[in-house]
Write a structure and sequence with these properties.
One of its GO terms (biological process) is phenylacetate catabolic process. Helices cover 31% and strands 24% of the residues. By secondary structure, the protein is α/β, with parallel strands linked by helices.
Length: 445
């Protein structure tokens, strides 16, 4: 097994829990003494930090929510004065004030090591050329992967997102082994290669690190087939650190390894807020254990999935989280049925003749909320029917889509089948949901 930090990635359960508890106590003392939000909250609820005797006692502590970050905008949750802050990131989300997070130099150093661990887990190594197509700027993806790859000893191509033909030229000329971007943009790169008359599998790439949006096993299969690589999922959010909170290993591709020495994870029932058993789906809740500038306690991520503590066949003993199955705020209700876009994606990508692009448009039909599922056919099918979207094959395909959606997701949707490239392409996070129930379209990633 190749690891970047074998000691921390192979801790026994007892060693891990002891380390987490010691770091949790340090973090609680930090936030109580340095962040008025937490001091006031703990005092109001009568919380005595001396009663936190183990990591299991974390459930006695209150949750932190995104709204708390917005209410304390911009610097109200910082635990260090500005002279100790070396970087800030932020995200606007879909509404309300942006969230702002900060880092000390030590925070940056820790983050860089965790990304180095992640790249090794993905199959990377020192000396690789690493093509980083995540966006730079306030978004944590670009700079997060950049500094971690440099920490590992890789040569970073800081190309950011967009200008796909330039991306392809850089891949051809610089011969990178690693690719980092959103999964939807990886599809875009592969598609553009084929449009340019290139074999999308004939490249130097060996592994891809994809995240920042939910994606299915079926999407993984498409990307791996199109680019001829191993595709792994990376997870993170700016409120906790950024990318690198967890990542899949290329050996098993079976759950994302959490950096247990820096983050404590819980999974809770979204309605009762009580813990669920390992293996059961719920909302991921994270507590930072080493963050100096922006420590957070029991942060409700809104991301849905499960965890396992079994040793992975790669040899790591870290807690593993499932890939994110959806978000509490992107779950849509179609005629009374709850469904995540990623569930619909899983079904669509198994249907022959469909390209791996889709969009869900929420509309009103009288008093009812309904959904239109917009998909597109492949170039091969389009040529086979001579561009006739009223062809019998299209009618059969439409019936199949409706049947599979009803069987797998229990929803009935209107289906709009379009020509190749009728769905907008992404150079960052894909726009999966367009809410047309209001005065104008609202794009939801």
């Amino acid at each position: 097994m190749e690891t970047y930090n074998a000691e921390m990635e192979t801790l026994s359960i007892a060693e891990k829990e002891e380390l987490q508890y010691l770091r949790l106590k340090e973090t609680l003392n930090r936030v109580y003494s340095k962040v008025s939000f937490y001091k006031e909250k703990f005092d109001k609820q009568g919380i005595d930090l001396e009663e936190i005797k183990s990591i299991k006692d974390i459930k006695k502590l209150p949750f932190t929510k995104k709204q708390n970050l917005r209410e304390n905008y911009p610097f109200g949750l910082f635990a260090e004065p500005m002279e100790n802050i070396v970087r800030m990131h932020g995200s606007s989300g879909t509404s309300g004030k942006p969230t702002v997070v900060s880092y000390t130099q030590n925070d940056i150093n820790v983050w860089s090591e965790l990304i180095a661990r992640a790249i090794v887990a993905a199959g990377g190594s020192k000396g690789d050329v690493f093509h980083n197509a995540y966006g730079y700027g306030l978004f944590t993806g670009g700079l997060g992967l950049h500094y971690g790859a440099e920490k590992l000893g890789a040569a970073v191509v800081p190309i950011s997102g967009g200008n796909t033909e330039r991306q392809i030229l850089a891949i051809q000329d610089f011969k990178p082994k690693g690719l980092a971007c959103t999964p939807s943009y990886a599809l875009n790169i592969a598609e553009k290669m084929r449009e340019m008359g290139l074999d999308s599998r004939d490249n130097s790439l060996r592994y891809g690190i994809f995240g920042a949006e939910p994606w299915s096993e079926e999407m993984r299969g498409k990307i791996e087939d199109l680019l001829g690589i191993k595709a792994v999922d990376i997870y993170g959010l700016s409120e906790i650190m950024g990318p690198g909170v967890s990542i899949e290993c290329h050996v098993a591709q079976d759950g994302l390894h959490i950096a247990d020495d820096h983050f404590l994870v819980e999974v809770i029932d979204t309605e009762t807020s009580e813990p669920v058993e390992d293996g059961e789906d719920g909302e991921f809740v994270f507590t930072t254990l080493t963050k100096e500038a922006f420590p957070v306690i029991r942060y409700r991520t809104g991301d849905i999935g499960s965890i396992t503590r079994d040793k992975c066949k790669c040899g790591r003993t870290t807690t593993r989280m499932s890939r994110v199955k959806g978000r509490t705020d992107d779950m849509i209700i179609i005629r009374g049925v709850n469904v995540f876009p990623s569930e619909m994606e899983r079904v669509l990508l198994q249907i022959e003749g469909l390209a791996p692009y889709y969009q869900i448009r929420l509309i009103k039909e009288g008093p009812m909320d309904c959904a239109e599922l917009h998909v597109e056919i492949t170039d091969e099918l389009f040529k086979g029917i001579n561009g006739d979207l009223k062809h019998e094959q299209i009618l059969i395909l439409e019936r199949k889509i409706k049947h599979e959606m009803k069987s797998a997701c229990l929803v009935s949707v209107k289906t709009v089948i379009g020509t190749p490239k009728s769905i907008p392409r992404s150079e960052g996070k894909a726009i999966r949901i367009v809410d047309q129930r209001k005065s104008g379209p609202v794009m939801l990633s």
